[in-house]
Write a structure and sequence with these properties.
Layout (H helix, E strand, L loop, with lengths): L1 E3 L4 E3 L9 H17 L3 H17 L11 H18 L7 E4 L5 E3 H25 L4 H10 L4 H30 L9 H9 L2 H21 L18 H23 L12
Antiparallel strand pairs: 1-2, 3-4
Helix pairs in contact: 1-4, 1-5, 1-9, 2-4, 3-4, 5-6, 6-8
Length: about 270
């Protein structure tokens, strides 16, 4: 048996389905906060590896990440170009000096590698949590965190629209591929033009989805104000509390190590 989440079908035996909805949101925030606090490349590499391992524990195929391969590649290229061509980070050795005044040192390469690892940690952690959450989890999670229902509903609708947009993008791309359009061959300009041609049908589909969603909301009598009752009731279990304590301790240790130096750039074990 499986259940539909925001982006995929997840087995109901997955331990992530048993967590409290608000704890999933808290975990998402804390893991991204830890990745933002860390500056040392080795601990960030450990964090990325641990996140990928959690995909196996949560029964999510790691190949799901490959759906974002082009996006990941573009971000990595942007980070490398910005640091290699536009930075002046002092180091013991300078490999290349450019006419416009910037240069590449061993510290430049290390800092670029660190930023890429930080991006991977945030991306994989967000993918892990969002791939195991449903629209109901977002609404109930935000409500249990005492956020207004109107905000919870809007956020849930935004994530739902994101998942639908990805499905529409895949359908339109596959339809154009069957008509002979190639997105993987040709020059960079030709491929950019082919991807740009996806804009018109995707825009039409997005407008249609928005109109349909407004009809559904109106027919179900949903409003953004007033008191509401809830069909589902969630309670914190012992493993929820243990995970919450673990995340709090992990965040505190990260802040302490960042303040004392081991997690500051270049960090342990590279700091001299």
């Amino acid at each position: 048996m499986s259940m539909r989440t925001l982006f995929l079908h997840l087995p109901k035996e997955s331990p992530m389905t048993k967590l409290h909805p608000s704890l999933k949101l808290i975990t998402l925030i804390i893991i991204n906060l830890i990745a933002w606090i860390m500056e040392a490349p080795i601990p960030l590499l450990i964090l990325v590896s641990s996140t990928i391992l959690c995909f196996k524990i949560a029964m999510i195929p790691v190949r799901r990440i490959m759906r974002f391969f082009r996006f990941i590649l573009l971000i990595v290229q942007a980070v490398l170009i910005s640091y290699l061509l536009g930075s002046k980070i002092p180091g013991e050795s300078v490999y290349i000096t450019f006419p416009w005044g910037t240069y590449i040192s061993e510290t430049t390469l290390l800092y670029a590698f660190t930023m890429i690892l930080r991006f991977f940690a945030m991306l994989f952690a967000s993918t892990l949590l969002l791939a195991t959450m449903t629209e109901r989890d977002i609404v109930y999670g935000l409500v249990y965190l005492h956020l207004p229902y109107s905000l919870s509903f809007v956020v849930s609708l935004a994530f739902k629209t994101m998942g639908v947009f990805i499905d529409d993008f895949i359908k339109v791309r596959d339809a154009m591929t069957l008509r002979g359009v190639s997105f993987d061959k040709g020059s960079l300009l030709e491929r950019a033009k082919n991807y740009a041609s996806l804009g018109v049908p995707l825009a039409v589909l997005s407008i249609r989805r928005m109109i349909e969603s407004s009809y559904v909301v109106a027919m179900r009598g949903l409003t953004l104000g007033g008191r509401r009752t809830y069909f589902h009731e969630y309670k914190f279990k012992i493993y929820d509390l243990l995970l919450l304590v673990f995340l709090g301790v992990l965040l505190a240790i990260t802040l302490l190590l960042k303040w004392t130096g081991p997690l500051s750039f270049p960090g342990w074990p590279l700091r001299r």
